[in-house]
Amino acid sequence: MMLFENMGKISFLFPLLLVVSFFCVNGSPHKEEIGIYELKNGDISAKFTNWGATIISVVVPDKDGKPGDIALGYESVEDYKNDTTYFGALVGRVANRIGGAKFSLDGTEYKLVANEGKNILHGGPKGFADVVWKVKSYRKDGIAPKIVFGYNSFDGEEGFPGEVKVTVSYTLLPKNQLVVNMKAKAVTKSTPVNLAQHTYWNLGNHDSGDILSEQVQLFASHYTPVDSELIPTGQISPVKGTPYDFLEPNTIGSRIKELPKGYDINYVVDGAPEKLKKVAVVKDKKSGRVMELFSNQPGVQFYTGNMIKDVKGKGGVVYKAYAGLCLETQAFPDSVNHPNFPSEIVTPSDPYKHDMLFQFSIAP
Prior knowledge:
This protein is mainly β. The protein has two helices and 28 strands. The strands form eight sheets. The chain has a nine-stranded antiparallel β-sheet with strand order 10-11-12-13-28-22-21-16-19, with no helix packed on it. A five-stranded antiparallel β-sheet has the order 18-17-20-23-26, with no helix packed on it.
């Protein structure tokens, strides 16, 4: 059953879900243990680890009722510690790229820790994907099983100003729905915040090969062009007449060869700012699975796993290029250096809130 048939129920539950992402992330004097946590609700189940607040697996049935894991990942938590792909991770403090690993805010220039040439990607060498998060709460049962992770980002971490208290909650709702709520509060000073959920999806199953035959529709009429280092130029351009046009459903592989390396680009999502809106629909013909994504963010990074190269994953499967796709709702990349982009600056009086809703179903 599609999401719109349940929108009344969702609109009632959503405010309740948003409440559980607490701002108060207390520092812990002892070393936080790393664990694996599972949630189940009807036909959907998911596993998580507090290393990087990471999604390890998402299991949903195919058209024949056979359950399958549709999220790329590793066999053990130890593998995530050496990960360079960001499989399933919650990335930040600022997801995506900042050109030159620097920006100015309130008259001060901040130099960050570069980790992709002269630029910074996903928060730096030790961003939020590479730290241990605290398990704030874990409820396995009930109508909405949920886990909440919290992290205190200290002033100066990877060069970013100010202390930030962050939470992310993962909730499974009835009818195969996964809700992700991210919140952040700047404690003492303004700072950029742009969190993103970096799961690689393959609706045919994580071990089924590439995603080039999967059909994608993106509700985005514009995108932000980039230079050779994938840093936005500052332009906002229409997708029509380009290989980036997914306004109508199209297979990923239909025009991917028109691009140098595949898709790795930010789209400007159509719709009202800060309102929950439809971002994307992905369909896999063979399995019959459908994934719909809703979010309140202005952008979504569409990435087709171009740089995956012989990565050993769950069950010993070796992931190769295009093994999975990412749909990372976000603020625009390098927003701190482009005044014409929506601001990603968070202040003590104006906290950050990022909501995602995944609806899994079977094509009629």
